[in-house]
Amino acid sequence: MARLTPSAAGALLLAAALLSGCERLITRPSLYATVSAQVMDRTGAPVPGARLVLYTGQRPMGYGTTDAMGQYTFQEVPEGVYGVLAVPPAGYERFEALVRTPKPSDVVDQLQVLGGAQVPARLTFLKRGAGSVEVVVREPGSVPLPGLTTVLYGPSGEVQRGTTDASGRLRFRDIPFGLYGVVVERPALYRDSGEVALPYTDGLIIDDGSIAEVPFLFEKCLGSVAAQVADQDGRAVPGAQLVFYRGGTVLNRDTLTTTMAVRRYGPLLCGDYGVSTVVPRGYTAANVRGSGYLDGLRVRRNGQLEATLRVHRMARGTLVVTIRDQGNRPVPEARVVLYNSTGVIRDQRTDANGRLVMDTVLMSESHGVRVVNPRGYLLGEGRGISFADQLLLADGEVRELPFRMERTGRATVEVRVADQEGRPVPATRVEIYTGAGLDRDARTGSDGAVTIPNLVVATAQGVEEYGVRVLAPPGYIAEEGRGFTFQDGVRFADGELRRFTFRFRRTTP
């Protein structure tokens, strides 16, 4: 073995001395920590006097009692995994005294304690004492529901009951420590078929000073019904009356139109409804469910029912009546009567083109059409001349019915009015009349003249007689009598132009 030289030995001693000094200068890391326990009630108030045990595994590591602030700190706790057990003092209870908990409420475990750290451990107990239950019942939109019966119950049954006030609230006061529930009577207005009439909330923990707020939200049970009337081909039935009812009460009466083929009812309260129909002429509805009526329409929450009443559409056609005179000119204002065995069905007149369209004519039996000549036209009597009968059309058929009338002659009257000096008298009212009364009237122009055309020369009763009357305007007077203010018994020839002159005396300068 080699021996150390004096210089080498001195170097080793010097190195050892240096290492010893460094060890005294370097601080070793702490292997201890603190565990701070905090015990409080549900309001966050401290719980003094709670006994505490700090443990690891099965071994207690320290004991303590919470102070007036509900706190206790375990000092110099070695590194490791710990738990804290708390024993509630008099007047306090664990949660397990009232409800089941997923883990003990008096233990906080699996605390990872590392050197130099301060590890918190928080526990909560129930404080014995009375509390309150605040029930709030509302609709969506925070609309209060007053007057609803509300019951507070405990394990042994009903404790208190009352009704919600105008704000939808009810407070149960001085409720002893314990576990409770609340049930509210849900009105039928807010209940659908199958929904519970008495909804409840349970598991309410009442301890000292607590206020358990229990909200109930009731939404009105609403739905809708869309009703329509359709024929055997699925076509809408304008003019059909819909009667919408519930029980024995009629809620609405509506008549369907081409623009409102479907009537929508809603929002409706949940329940059973019905709809019936009264169909217009040309349709039949059987007195059976699905045709004349449809009941048992159950409206559910947010539901949209569709109700279709199926009726029978009877066959129908269209009659087109055209009337012209001997010169093939249209005859306007001619009266056209549609009839069957029961009497007159329609009574209408031709338009300016001498035409009349009678559509949707029911063809369940034969019909007849009669035309009546207007004044100034002559019409003979007979089938094909003044009427057509035994008309039975196929469904959808369009039948043209032409008629001819003889147009009688027409005449024209020209009236002139002048004063004593031959000057024209404007604004004079001129009346043309017959035995039946006033035929037409007009006024003279600035030249004191007016022309009145198209006076009927003859009617079916014979040659027409006319009268012409003039009425003096303000500032003029006339002697009353034939030839002065009127002419009567006037007959015209076809195409004649008859002129009449009347004289007034001017009374103003």
Can I get a quick summary?
The strands form 15 sheets. The protein has a four-stranded antiparallel β-sheet, with no helix packed on it. 4% of the residues lie in helices and 53% in strands.
3D structure, described in words:
There is one protein chain. The chain has about 500 residues and is mainly beta. It has five domains: about 30-125, Immunoglobulins (Immunoglobulin-like, Sandwich), CATH 2.60.40.10; about 130-215, Immunoglobulins (Immunoglobulin-like), CATH 2.60.40.10; about 225-315, Immunoglobulin-like (Sandwich); about 315-405, Immunoglobulins (Immunoglobulin-like); about 410-505, Immunoglobulin-like, CATH 2.60.40. The strands form 15 sheets. It has a four-stranded antiparallel β-sheet with strand order 3-2-5-7, with no helix packed on it. Strands 10, 11, 14 and 17 form a four-stranded mixed β-sheet that branches. Strand 2 and strand 3 form a beta hairpin.
